[in-house]
Amino acid sequence: MHEVTLESWKDFYVALAGAASALAGLVFVALSINLARILAIPGLTARGGETIILLSAALLAALIGLIPGQSLQTIGLELGVVGLIAWCAPVAFQITAGRAKYYQTRSQLVHRVIFHQAATVPLLLASALMLSGRDGGFGWLALGVILALVAGLQNAWVLLVEILR
């Protein structure tokens, strides 16, 4: 078994940075194209913000991974800050949306919360593992950012297509 190093993840981080920035651009286009509708439907501005936060977290994780000469603990600390912001702000949005009953069904809110938790909790776990000096955090980080991209795609679909139904 070979030792996992930051260098061995470089190509992944480069690809992730490109994918996350492209998806974030798509969300900005979706928001600008459908701005009047998004502003008219309660809770959609928060969903747009949540999407930008998730995709920004994935992009920042990639950029953090590409900074040369950092220790595992430094990367873990930086990812922890990004992960906490990516977890906290959308949770506040989701609590507000749930209390205001912005969803037609409870399962719509549950679906959104599950996607968000699946994308952000692995980032926090990766941070904790890296802060403790373990390299197992790279796998959790990969899972988290991939799920952040999936959640971002799903939200972009809602903001571009479902809003027009």
Please tag this protein with its features:
single chain; about 160 residues; mainly alpha; about 80% helix; elongated
Task: Describe the protein's architecture and organization.
- With 165 residues, the protein is mainly alpha-helical.
- The protein has one domain (7-164).
- It is built from 6 helices and no strands.
- The chain has helices at residues 10-33, 35-40, 44-66, 72-99, 106-131, 137-160.
- The chain is elongated and about 50 Å long.
User: Helix and strand succession?
Assistant: HHHHHH
Number of β-strand runs: 0
How much of the sequence is in beta strands?
Answer: under 5%
Counting helices, strands and paired strands, the structural category is mainly alpha
Q: What is the helix content?
A: over 70%
Mean pLDDT: 90
- Report Rg: 17 Å
Largest sheet: none
The unreliable regions are none
Task: Determine the N-to-C terminus distance.
Answer: 52 Å
Q: What is the 3D form? A: elongated
The tally of domains stands at 1
Q: Count helical runs.
A: 6
Short description:
It contains six helices and no strands. By secondary structure, the protein is mainly α.
Write the layout of secondary structure elements.
Layout: H1 10-33, H2 35-40, H3 44-66, H4 72-99, H5 106-131, H6 137-160
Helix pairs in contact: 1-3, 1-6, 3-4, 3-6, 4-5, 5-6
